[in-house]
Every structure is written in C-alpha cells, then in structure tokens.
Amino acid sequence: MEIASLIKLTESHGGSAMVLSKGERDAGTVLIVTMFRGMNAKLFERMPQLDGTRAFIATKTQDIEKPKEFFDYIDRRCRQDPDIWVLEVDVDDAERFVELLPR
To answer: What is the spatial distance between Cα 23 and Cα 32, in angstroms, rounded to a whole number?
Structure first.
C-alpha cells in the first residue's frame, strides 16, 4: 500500500516510478532511489529521528565515475534482506520530493 501511494505521489509531481525489488508485503523496509532523467542517483532510507519519527535520509550517492557501484550496493542490500522494497523514482528536485514523504 505504501509503495502504491509513493508511485501515485511521484506521478502527481510529473515523475515516474518503478519497483526494482518487491519485499515483504506488510513490513518490508522501503528504499527509494531518486534520480532526474536517469542521472544523479541517490539512495534514501528511513532512519529513526530523535523525535520518534522515521524520516527518509540520503545514505548513498552514485559516483559519476563508478556508477555500477551504486546499484551493486543496492543488490547486496536486497540479498542481505529479502524483505526490502526498492522503488526507483525519476523526478525533478528529488530532495524536495523526499521532504513530502510521510514520516
């Protein structure tokens, strides 16, 4: 349900979204890969905050000179935790988009 709402939110902001990895339906961790026109990928993960919320925080940025390393990292995470959902979002101003996401 959360993934479906994230896809609709992406589309409402003029972007596109694609599920790269399907995880556990009710309790899987959600990772969001943001990019704009297929470039400048960033990985956002939910992290606990001091106020008790769980905000999406950028945890990895794609290196222009070694782009494969970024997706290798995501593949490793999926092998370590088969419950992970990975959603790729191609949208303008990724940081602003991520700020709109529920905590």
So the answer is: 13
Domains of the chain: 2-99 (3.40.1530.20)
The residue to which tokens 């003029």 are assigned: 14
From residue 73, how far is each of 4, 12, 33, 86 by CA, in Å? 24, 29, 12, 12
Q: pLDDT digit of tens for each residue in the chain (103 aa)?
A: 688 999 999 999 999 999 999 988 877 889 999 999 988 899 999 888 888 888 899 999 999 899 899 999 999 999 999 899 999 999 998 888 898 887 7
Pick from 2, 62, 66: nearest CA to 35: 62
Give the C-alpha distances (Å, rounded to integers) separating 23 from 3, 39, 79. Answer: 10, 25, 11
Q: What is the phi-psi region of residue 38: left when phi exceeds 0, alpha when psi lies from -120 to 50, beta otherwise?
A: left
